[in-house]
Design brief:
With 302 residues, the chain is α/β, with parallel strands linked by helices. The strands form 4 sheets. A 5-stranded mixed β-sheet has the order 4-3-5-12-6. A 3-stranded antiparallel β-sheet has the order 10-7-11. The chain folds into 3 domains: 81 residues, Winged helix-like DNA-binding domain superfamily/Winged helix DNA-binding domain (Arc Repressor Mutant, subunit A, Orthogonal Bundle); 100 residues, D-Maltodextrin-Binding Protein, domain 2, CATH 3.40.190; 100 residues, D-Maltodextrin-Binding Protein, domain 2 (3-Layer(aba) Sandwich), CATH 3.40.190. The chain has 11 helices and 12 strands.
Length: 302
């Protein structure tokens, strides 16, 4: 989808060698040289400085190479759009998600979607909520699942799943009970907590400060799975949305109680996209499945 002269020009520009470009296209170096000379004549500029060391781009040559590179990117975008018309036989969906969604909720949706559309590839980054806006706005991700995302004009909230925060501990722990737990009861309690990159941690720190208490941080980590394993086998407590510990609760390795407080009861997992990003057909199709699952998901009791 390029003029032959532009393809030859780009090959020489990138390699700095007529001979190397000729080998790539399996033609004589003189044929490529003639095409470049023709291009220079048409554009009325000199594209290369020729020396015994090879071919070096002039300023005009650099401008033309930028033009060729931009054209190739546009052709790539066109190919993606044409792939979109292939009944979801091909395509890539990029996700940026918080770890809380990666244990049970997201894997089930991925499995269901992939069973129907096995040609769609997924690239999933598990990251902190604070990283997600940049992932979306830089188009490194098409869709995101974030914890307690703030309202922003450059992001679109597609769905929201209420996930009231819970205290989790091992069965038989002194704090285990049936009703909601006040932060006042947690003063000096040994806890395993996610690091400060997690929205969960910021919520807990703010609530502890508001209640005038101090948690004893026995473990700080960037792994919720590690926290769940430690809590299940020790006297430490932790704090998570229900989506995170569904399997452990069902297996009886941890128990949970909702935490008292409006901020805890309103905690949520949010489905987000960037307002500036036109989603591919594959991403739009997955977003429809994801938002449907989010809206159909029972509200976690707080």
């Amino acid at each position: 989808m390029q003029l032959p002269s532009l393809k030859y020009f780009a090959a020489v520009a990138r390699s700095g060698s007529l001979r190397h470009a000729a080998e790539v296209f399996e033609i004589a170096p003189s044929a490529i040289s003639r095409q470049i000379a023709l291009l220079e004549s048409r554009l009325a500029v000199t594209l290369f400085e020729r020396s015994s060391r090879g071919m070096t781009l002039t300023e005009a040559g650099k401008v033309l190479l930028d033009f060729v590179d931009d054209g190739e990117r546009r052709v790539g975008a066109l190919s993606q759009r044409l792939d979109d018309l292939s009944a979801l036989r091909r395509g890539t969906v990029r996700l940026a998600v918080v770890e809380a969604t990666a244990h049970d909720f997201l894997p089930r949706i991925l499995e269901r979607f992939s069973r129907l559309h096995p040609g769609i590839e997924f690239r999933v980054s598990v990251c902190a909520t604070g990283e997600i806006p940049d992932r979306l706005l830089s188009h490194a991700a098409d869709i995101a699942l974030a914890f307690n995302s703030p309202s922003r004009d450059d992001l679109v909230l597609r769905a929201r799943m209420t996930q009231p925060m819970h205290l989790i501990c091992a069965p038989g722990h002194p704090l285990h009970g049936d009703g909601p737990v006040s932060m006042k009861l947690l003063d000096g309690v040994a806890a395993a907590v996610p690091d400060r990159s997690f929205g969960i941690r910021r919520l807990i720190d703010n609530a502890a400060a508001a209640a005038g208490i101090r948690l004893r941080l026995a473990l700080e980590t960037d792994s919720l799975q590690l926290i769940l394993k430690v809590v299940a086998s020790s006297s430490l407590v932790s704090f998570m949305p229900p989506m995170t510990f569904t399997r452990e609760l069902a297996a009886g390795t941890v128990t949970s109680q909702p935490l008292q407080g409006t901020a805890f009861s309103r905690a949520s997992i949010d489905v987000l996209t960037a307002r500036s990003h036109d989603l591919s057909h594959a991403a739009r199709s997955f977003l429809a499945v994801l938002t449907h699952a989010a809206r159909e998901r029972p509200v976690a009791k707080g």
